[in-house]
Specification:
45% of the residues lie in helices and 17% in strands. The chain is an alpha/beta fold. The structure holds glutamic acid (GLU).
């Protein structure tokens, strides 16, 4: 889901990858790893760029640029979603792929990191054009993906139907049934129960940990959510059901605000039927939403929303990053100094890829799990990793992102260093 905010123009975008690497290097100072690990993680293993010619409904031909970045697969097959968005470029996809490598290590699942994207505004395509584009994209990257190679999933402006087209197209390219090549599929095609709300649910389990730590009473806690796509909507629903006061939500067109709390069920119904938020409460834009007087802020849209410019005005005590990369390094430092707890994307939104792993396991085993089992296993993962990172953050006195990156780097290091490092070879150790 796109936010109602631009992300700082082309200049900021092109250096997104350099900024992402700099943050990893910074966090590495707190990690017990061999220097070679950082060297190996300084660039993706493979980047694929494709041009996709598409016959439009009116008979004209257009071409779209697509990418698949395979960042690292030391811990398992490359894993990560596919985004359809006009802002997609190589710097963004590389950053998102690096974050996936860290994220899979943070939740300790046997996957590496990858990401894909097509530079397109899907809101301007018909359903049939979107299907043709999805199928063309998979045909173009079919040689580099695979159940044990690289496993895509949904991301911004793609969903279970997009995954159905892609899985179907892949099966017809390789001429065999291969449901495990893509996760986030509809249940009928081998999707997992509980994958639809998994990203939000993972963040919700994190919130429940914080609620217990801080002795919060949900009815007293005000929540603002930026972005009303899959993650934002499901998160709103889950916390609203628990009695939290969701006071503001927004989508790419703008938002609504009511200090008393919004009727989430009705808002989701309206958004599903009309494609936009209803006229309730006060109107608010996506930038103003970030600095509202709330307790919990949930960026669930795009990168670079909390920046050096607005971080000092953030009033929330807790930020739960359901989006990937919503907080810049400068904003992170400002928020840390103010005592704001920022639960980083690589943990907060890792519920999605965790249930993707469950889906992949079910596809390979040919046995399907009950919803309760998915929830129980997801909760156990989120709880365990939140507690590990919270303890490390407290011990080191650093932002939770630094603790998360350091922990992920150590897990990646165990795989990347296993075949030997310079130290071993120079000493001739066996
Ligand atoms: N696109 C999601 C993410 O950024 C899910 C990835 C996946 O399930 O592979 O984490």
């Amino acid at each position: 889901m796109q936010a109602d905010v631009s992300v700082g123009g082309a200049a900021a975008e092109s250096d997104l990858f350099a900024r992402s690497i700099a943050r990893v290097q910074q966090a590495a100072k707190h990690a017990r790893i061999d220097p070679e690990t950082l060297l190996r993680l300084s660039a993706p293993r493979r980047t694929v760029e494709v041009s996709l010619p598409l016959r439009m409904d009116d008979g004209s031909l257009r071409t779209f640029r697509g990418y698949r970045v395979q960042y690292d697969d030391a811990r398992g097959p490359f894993k990560g979603g596919i985004r359809f968005h006009p802002q997609v470029d190589i710097a963004e996809v590389k950053s998102l792929a690096l974050w996936m490598a860290l994220k899979c290590a943070v939740v300790d699942i046997p996957f590496g990191g990858g990401k894909g994207g097509v530079e397109v505004d899907p809101r301007q395509l018909s359903l049939a054009e979107t299907e043709r584009l999805s199928r063309a994209y998979v045909r173009a990257i079919a040689d580099v993906i695979g159940v044990d190679r690289d496993v895509p999933a949904p991301d911004v402006y793609t969903n279970s139907r997009t995954m159905a087209w892609m899985a179907d197209e892949y099966a017809s390219v390789v001429r065999e049934h291969a449901p495990g090549v893509i996760t986030g599929k509809p249940i009928g095609l081998g999707g997992s129960l509980g994958r639809d709300d998994a990203t939000a649910r993972g963040g919700y389990y994190v919130l429940k940990e914080i609620e217990a730590l801080r002795d919060w009473k949900p009815s007293e806690i005000r929540v603002a959510i930026q972005g009303f796509g899959n993650a934002g909507q499901h998160f709103a629903k889950l916390v609203h059901k628990d009695g939290y006061r969701v006071v503001a939500v927004c989508d790419s067109r703008g938002g609504v605000y009511s200090p008393e709390g919004l009727g989430i069920r009705q808002i989701i119904e309206h958004k599903t039927e009309q494609g936009r938020l209803p006229d309730v409460g006060e109107k608010i834009d996506g930038t103003a939403l970030l600095t509202l007087d709330v307790d919990v802020l949930v960026p669930a849209a795009l990168e670079d929303q909390l920046t050096a410019k607005n971080a000092k005005d953030v009033k929330a005590k807790v930020v739960i990053e359901l989006a990937n990369g919503p907080t810049t390094a400068e904003a992170d430092a400002i928020l840390h100094d103010k005592g704001t707890l920022v639960v980083p994307d690589v943990l907060a939104n890792a519920g999605g890829v965790t249930v993707s792993w469950f889906e992949w396991l079910q596809n390979r085993a040919g046995i399907y799990w009950e919803l309760e089992e998915v929830h129980k296993k997801l909760r156990r993962t989120m709880q365990a990793q939140f507690r590990t990172l919270h303890a490390r953050m407290t011990e080191l006195g650093v932002p939770m992102r630094t603790a998360a990156y350091a922990t992920a780097l150590e897990r990646l290091d165990r795989a990347l260093s296993a075949t030997g490092t310079a130290k071993d070879f120079q000493k001739g150790r066996r």
